[in-house]
Amino acid sequence: MRAQYPVSDESIRQLESQLTACRFPKRYRLIREHAYSKCAYFIEKGMTRSFWPVNGDEITTSFSTEGGLVFSMDELYYGKASEEVVETIEETEAYRIALTDLTRLWETDLGLCNWGRIIHQNEYRRLHRSHQERLTLPAKERYEAFRQQFPDVCRRANLSYIASYLGITLSTLSRLRAAE
Q1: CA gap 133, 3 in Å, rounded
Q2: Three-class SS state of 52
Q3: pLDDT, tens digit, 9 for 90 and up, residues 43-94
């Protein structure tokens, strides 16, 4: 946490006092479509992917690994049930915090508020870059950019999830990987 933004020891203690350690099996849905989870999860070990269910398909929107924070933006910011699903793709150890507690900490602790802002600022940049790459780069360059940005995900995630994230077919991704 401190590497992204300096947070005081007291702020860390306040945050830690609200966390509950959890373990989840592979393919467990932390956040479900059309549901309220009421929680956010700090990923300690393992990996998740976020996706939109669309006409029977799953469109991968992001991956989170150790050090990541996952929650429903729809729920946190707009008070609505999630449109997105967050599922573990490995056995995952995480710390759960109620969204009400996280919001209260952001409202009352300037250090944690700025830390949260930095997390969201970085996520916005990642989303913006991903959108730009999907619209402007050929498949090979999209994959190369993904490999550079997320080398750990490339080693750990199912290829179909990566292809979905990149907006390419699995066969195209397989050809790109074979040409490496």
Answers
A1: 27
A2: strand
A3: 999 999 999 999 999 999 999 999 999 999 999 989 999 999 999 999 999 9
The three-state secondary structure class of 34 is coil
Name the one residue in this structure whose structure tokens are 């989170």.
64
Query: pLDDT (tens digit, 9 = 90+) per residue, 168-178?
Result: 999 999 999 99
Place of tokens 């979905």: 164
Give CA–CA dist 99/56, Å, rounded: 29
CA distance 38 to 151: 31
Instruction: State how far Cα 85 lies from the chain centre.
Output: 10
pLDDT at 10: 93
Counting every residue, how long is the chain?
180
C-alpha to C-alpha distances, 23 to 87, 96, 160, nearest whole angstrom: 13, 10, 25
